[in-house]
Design brief:
The structure holds 2 protein chains of 2 kinds. In chain A, helix 7 crosses helix 9. Chain A is elongated. In chain A, strands 1, 2, 6, 7, 8, 11, 12, 13, 14 and 15 form a 10-stranded mixed beta sheet that branches. Chain A has a 3-stranded antiparallel beta sheet with strand order 5-4-16, with no helix packed on it. A two-stranded antiparallel sheet of chain A has the order 3-17. Chain A is 39% helix and 20% strand. Chain A folds into 3 domains: 283 residues, no CATH class; 52 residues, no CATH class; 58 residues, Arc Repressor Mutant, subunit A (Orthogonal Bundle), CATH 1.10.10.410. By secondary structure, chain A is of the alpha+beta class. In chain A, helix 3 links the parallel strand 13 and strand 14. Chain B has one domain: Amidase signature (AS) enzymes. Chain B is built from 16 helices and 11 strands. In chain B, strands 1-3-2-4-6-5-10-11-9-7-8 form an 11-stranded mixed beta sheet, with helices on both faces. The longest helix of chain B has 25 residues. Chain B is globular, with a radius of gyration of 21 Å. The two termini of chain B are 28 Å apart. The chains are: A alpha+beta, B alpha/beta. At the A-B interface, loops of A face helix 10 of B. Chain B: It is an enzyme of class 6 (ligase). Chain B: Pfam families: Amidase. Chain B: Keywords: ATP-binding, Ligase, Nucleotide-binding, Protein biosynthesis, Transferase.
């Protein structure tokens, strides 16, 4: 994706908010869950009753540190919370408890694809903060309804430096963040549900210059595609203004999904003075070396590294590698199987094909899946050695193995009498029967309709109840038809 | 009913059958009936509830299962959450609000069978030094003569003073327990910051707010502290320092060294009777062979500005939750969201609270933050360091609790800075987070009580309470 402007250089900084999938809220024991009936997870603490105090959720701190380690950040030895003051009905305390001066993770970077090469995107920080509730403008009641279930749930805000130079990089960065979030299990990273949200600071500057141009902040983007569309629209809008000799106004703009355009929401003059100051209800949190060592020991190999290994050591395509690196379960399953089975590409095909489809259809995870890597190895060997044909293996045998977790692939195939028929004389009989039953088609084939071969193979398969070896069948059909 | 000045007196009369718990509560209720209309110390009396509870406690006493506070009738300042009961912080903005849980320190007292007989009037959101800033109207000092009781826990001090209860739980941010105690001739105690959980205490300035005790006796103060103090999963700032058996503290028997701040004891704001009463104490201490370390307090001129910058900054955020959206008062004249906020808060908060919110908002504003808030934080550290260093080398700091005895109602209406000057001697210990106590130290020529303040190092409450008892019995 190339931005149209040639005179200007695009500079983007992203603020990515990730909801953390902790059991309870950041400062209260209320349940942190999406989709519950409105105002059911709201204790006096969430509702900011007088006399209530915050108590930090250790799991949220742990998740933030994990994200920081995954993004190559320095983890603060002491981290503290601040109050960000503003009035809005969805903000019960009249301030948001967030981190200003001492964020939990400092600096950091992620490498993302940019065109044909990789680019390193530097981070400024990752900090922990609480989410607000939800306002719903309700026409029937001619007013606004408030749901405080989300109020006080934990977020991390990941802030990049202004170093992103294309919409593609922005998209790839969010994709990578989402992949890590899901891989580490710290969140579900679902943008449509708002569990991953993104604001972008966008500016242009004349090519070759170093000073940053006036930035515009775009909020309210609910998909990676929309982040990219918003950036592209801003490039067009801002370069048009600059071409006319106009200046860019510092403002907050919203992105409209329907029109693909951004519109002004708030100018700098209307901006809040948030009056940040240290939250006196929360002591600074010390992150000890031993605690950090403990978390580091829990860190799995990360997706980017897994993808690299899958491509370089196992010769998988980038597409396959990306899918396998989506979760720790998948990566483990692959590596485990690959230790005992050298048909790497086939393992990937089985995982991405029948296994993934089955799990998705039955809403199961790999952890619950009964075909172990050892059994999959057995199954792949049967296919690769020509004893089972793939379509039978991936349907009847596969399902029967799931239904009978005690049996191996060979036992299942044997019990179902599904071993491939490699006996040429037996197959020749079936071939002859099939061709005799379709004289018209045979004539047409001989006149040049070579595409009918598929039909003949299919008929032989049907007659053999799926046991015919497809290669031998094709060979025999060709021989017989050319007689 | 006869006057009771300690729980041990009450318990011994109950034990001897002179009085039952129910009769005790009836006695206090009768005091309330005859005095509260005039004094206005209680905003709500839990008559039926207290009588029911009294019968239960009596039953427990009879069968030997009573808690350590059985027979202690208390009142609580209108800033504490008390499940199912109105909490209004003496403000219109909390109209109709009822607590959905009980504050940790209050619950701990209830668990030991204290009986809550009523809710004390106070200054709105604990902001004030005269208890004139209340939606319930001013509290009057039981000494009469149209005097204020001090504030902000004025209702608590008067309830103890006028024997509407034995003990009251107040709150002390910059002197709100000690100064009214001084004005009303009772004991007022503020522990080390973090000694008692703030969970359930309406926040004024979070890094200053302390649960405080008003009582007639040091023993009762010690027992209440012992029960209320200690770790609490709901308060991240509460200390995990071991809670000693304060009520069993040994008698004070040692020689000691006290700090006397020369520039405080000769401060121009000090009333002559107050000065004489302090001088008398120092003279006696010296005569008894103890050491007096005379020194100027370096930052005296900075204590009030530092206190008011930091407390109002914190208050401006702490009071943002009172916005008409979720509970309490909401204006009926709103046109849109913005006017709902403005009108609700303008109509709901009293003048003093508005003033402090505005001041706090100002000192946190962009461009002013460093000049005010950051600087005040630094000065607070200097104040604390100097106080603590003096207390490393001396046992106590002794100074007047307030520069004057109780003053006339409405006398500071025109000059609020004069009113702020009332706090000059109490905010120092609050800035440093140190434990301190105000003990009655005689009266002036008009019979107005005067208090003397003793300050100790952090978490040395045991020492402070032992010494207070000694001071009361042997020196004052």
């Amino acid at each position: 994706m190339k931005e149209k402007s040639s005179k200007y250089e695009l500079v983007v900084g992203l603020e990515v908010h990730v909801q953390l999938a902790t059991e309870s809220k950041l400062f209260a024991s209320d349940k942190n869950s999406f989709g519950d009936a409105p105002n059911t997870n709201v204790s006096p603490i969430t509702l900011a009753h007088p006399g209530t105090l915050p108590k930090p959720n250790k799991k949220a701190i742990e998740y933030a540190i994990k994200m920081g380690l995954a993004c190559n950040c320095e983890i603060a030895k002491v981290t503290s919370f601040d109050r960000k003051n503003y009035f809005y009905p969805d903000l019960p305390k009249g301030y948001q408890t967030t981190q200003d001066n001492q964020p939990i993770c400092i600096g950091g970077y992620l490498d993302v694809k940019s065109g044909e090469s990789m680019r390193r995107i530097d981070f400024n920080r990752i900090h922990v903060e609480e989410d607000a509730g939800k306002s719903m403008h309700d026409a029937a009641h001619q007013g606004t309804l408030l749901d405080y279930n989300r109020a006080g749930t934990p977020l991390i805000e990941m802030v990049t430096e202004p170093v992103i130079s294309t919409a593609e990089e922005a998209g790839n960065l969010i994709t990578e963040i989402r992949r890590i979030v899901r891989f580490l299990g710290v969140g579900d990273g679902n943008m449509e549900e708002g569990s991953l949200r993104c604001d972008a600071n966008i500016s242009l500057r004349p090519k070759g210059t170093q000073t940053l141009g006036q930035k515009v902040e775009i909020k309210n983007m609910n998909s990676i595609r929309n982040v990219q569309r918003a950036i592209q629209h801003e490039v067009t809008r801002q370069s048009h203004l600059l071409d006319q000799g106009k200046t860019i106004k510092q403002e907050t703009r919203g992105f409209d999904d329907a029109t693909g355009k951004t519109t002004s929401q708030r100018s700098k003059e209307e901006a809040n003075d948030y009056r940040y100051f240290p939250c006196p209800d929360l002591l600074p949190i010390k992150i000890s070396d031993s605690y950090l060592t403990e978390i580091k020991a829990m860190m799995p190999k990360l997706p980017a590294e897994i993808v690299k290994e899958l491509q370089e050591k196992f010769n998988l395509t980038e597409y396959d590698a990306d899918i396998i690196a989506e979760s720790e379960d998948r990566a483990d399953y692959f590596f485990h199987t690959a230790k005992i089975c050298s048909h790497y590409k086939k393992i990937a095909n089985w995982m991405i094909g029948p296994i993934q489809n089955y799990l998705a259809e039955h809403n199961q995870s790999l952890a619950q899946f009964s075909i172990t890597p050892e059994k999959l190895h057995d199954l792949i060997d049967l296919v690769e050695s020509g004893k089972l044909n793939y379509s039978t293996a991936s349907t009847k045998v596969f399902l029967d193995m799931i239904a009978n977790p005690d049996k191996s692939a060979s036992e299942t195939a044997k019990d179902l009498a599904l071993f491939q028929d490699n006996d040429e004389s037996g197959l020749q009989k079936i071939v002859d029967e099939v061709l005799e039953g379709m004289p018209d088609k045979v004539a047409a084939f001989k006149k040049g309709k070579k595409g009918l071969m598929g039909l003949f193979v299919g008929e032989v398969m049907k007659k053999s109840r799926g046991k015919a070896n497809p290669q031998i069948t094709t060979k025999l059909l060709n021989e017989t038809l050319s007689k | 009913m006869k006057s009771y000045h300690s729980l041990s007196q009450v318990r011994s009369d109950i034990a001897s059958g002179t009085i039952t718990c129910v009769e005790l509560v009836q006695g206090y209720l009768s005091n309330i009936t005859s005095k509260n209309t005039d004094l206005n110390a209680l905003s709500e009396v839990y008559e039926e509830e207290a009588l029911v509870q009294a019968a239960e406690v009596q039953e427990k006493i009879n069968n030997g299962s009573a808690g350590r506070l059985a027979g202690m009738v208390i009142t609580i300042k209108d800033v504490y959450c008390h499940n199912g009961h109105t909490l209004q912080s003496a403000s219109k903005i909390l109209d109709g609000f009822k607590s959905q849980f009980t504050a940790t320190p209050i619950q701990r007292l209830l668990d030991e069978d204290a009986i809550i007989i009523g809710r004390n009037n106070c200054d709105e959101f604990a902001m004030g030094s005269s208890n004139e800033n209340s939606v319930y109207g001013p509290v009057k000092n039981a000494v009469g003569k149209n005097k204020v009781p001090g504030g902000s826990s004025g209702g608590s001090a008067v309830a103890v003073q006028a024997e509407m209860c034995l003990v009251s739980i107040g709150s002390d941010t910059g002197g709100s327990v000690r100064q009214p105690a001084s004005f009303c001739g009772v004991i007022g105690f503020k522990p080390t910051y973090g000694r008692i959980s703030r969970h359930g205490l309406t926040a004024y300035a979070s890094s200053f707010d302390c649960v405080g005790v008003l009582a007639h006796s040091v023993e009762d103060t010690a027992l209440v502290l012992e029960i209320a103090a200690g770790p609490d999963e709901y308060d991240h700032t509460v200390s995990t320092t071991n809670v000693p058996a304060y009520s069993k503290a040994p008698e004070w028997a040692e020689k000691f060294s006290v700090v006397s701040f020369e520039n405080i004891n000769s401060h121009e704001a000090i009333d002559s009777a107050v000065k004489q009463s302090v001088d008398r104490v120092f003279d006696k201490i010296e005569t008894l062979g103890n050491r007096i370390h005379k020194v100027d307090f370096t930052y005296l001129n900075y204590v009030l500005p530092t206190y008011y910058i930091l407390t109002t900054a914190e208050a401006s955020a702490n009071l943002s939750r009172f916005d008409g959206v979720k509970y309490g008062y909401r204006t009926e004249n709103a046109k849109d969201l913005d006017s709902m906020y403005r009108k609700t808060r303008t109509e709901g908060f009293g003048e003093e609270v508005v003033k402090r919110i505005l001041l706090g908002t100002y000192v946190l504003s962009e461009g002013f933050y460093d000049a005010y808030y950051t600087k005040a934080q630094k000065v607070r550290r200097l104040i604390r360091d100097e106080m603590k260093s003096l207390l490393e080398n001396n046992d106590f700091i002794i100074m007047p609790t307030a520069p004057t005895p109780a003053f006339d109602l409405n006398s500071h209406d025109r000059n609020p800075l004069e009113m702020y000057l009332e706090d000059i001697f109490t905010v120092q210990a609050s800035l440093a987070g140190l434990p301190c106590i105000s003990i009655p130290n005689g009266t002036d020529e008009n019979g107005l009580p005067i208090g003397i303040q003793v300050i100790c190092n952090s978490f040395e409450e045991e020492k402070l309470l032992s010494f207070s008892k000694y001071l009361k019995e042997h020196i004052l």
